[in-house]
């Protein structure tokens, strides 16, 4: 998501994202990157679609993941969700403190959503 660099906007977006993840509890979702400049705060979220062979067959897990992504763009439209590439090393490092406190936040912050190789890339 690309948010205005204001706390209220970030809080609203993260609360809506947490609610959305709760509604799609079976989909592995992870917060994997944070960055900010003068114009925008970027929150990078990873969604695990499952093994490539299962995605090609449109398995139930892949359908659930695509449903989450569809809802992400519908529910969080005002927060300007965009497709992006993998987060940079700096963005991944910035999110590390949030991942360490995942137990307090809830299940949606799940570092397993992307492989360690992808997150460290």
Structure description:
The chain has 121 residues and is an alpha+beta fold. It has helices spanning 7-23, 52-56, 60-75, 89-100, 102-105, 116-120, and strands spanning 2-3, 29-36, 41-47. A three-stranded antiparallel sheet has the order 1-3-2. The longest helix has 17 residues, at 7-23. It starts with a strand and ends with a helix. 23% of the residues are buried. The model is unreliable at 107-121 (pLDDT under 50).
Summarize the structure.
The protein has 121 residues and is α+β, with helices and mostly antiparallel strands. The chain is 49% helix and 14% strand. A 3-stranded antiparallel sheet has the order 1-3-2.
Read across the widest sheet, the strand sequence of neighbours is 1-3-2
What's the mean pLDDT score? Answer: 75
- Approximately what portion of the residues adopt beta-strand conformation? 5-15%
Ranges with pLDDT <50 over ≥5 residues? 107-121
| Sheet/helix structural class | alpha+beta
The count of DSSP E runs of length 2 or more, i.e. the number of strands, is 3
Our Rg estimate from Cα atoms comes to: 14 Å
Element string (H = helix, E = strand)? EHEEHHHHH
């Amino acid at each position: 998501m690309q948010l205005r660099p204001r706390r209220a906007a970030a809080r609203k977006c993260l609360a809506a994202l947490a609610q959305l993840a709760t509604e799609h509890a079976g989909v592995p979702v992870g917060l994997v990157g944070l960055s900010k400049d003068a114009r925008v705060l970027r929150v990078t979220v990873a969604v695990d679609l499952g093994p490539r062979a299962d995605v090609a067959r449109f398995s139930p897990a892949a359908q659930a993941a695509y449903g989450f992504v569809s809802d992400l763009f519908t529910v969080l439209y005002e927060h300007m969700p965009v497709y992006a590439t993998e987060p940079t090393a700096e963005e991944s490092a910035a999110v590390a403190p949030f991942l360490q406190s995942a137990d307090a936040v809830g299940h949606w912050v799940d570092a397993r959503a992307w492989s360690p190789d992808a997150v460290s890339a």
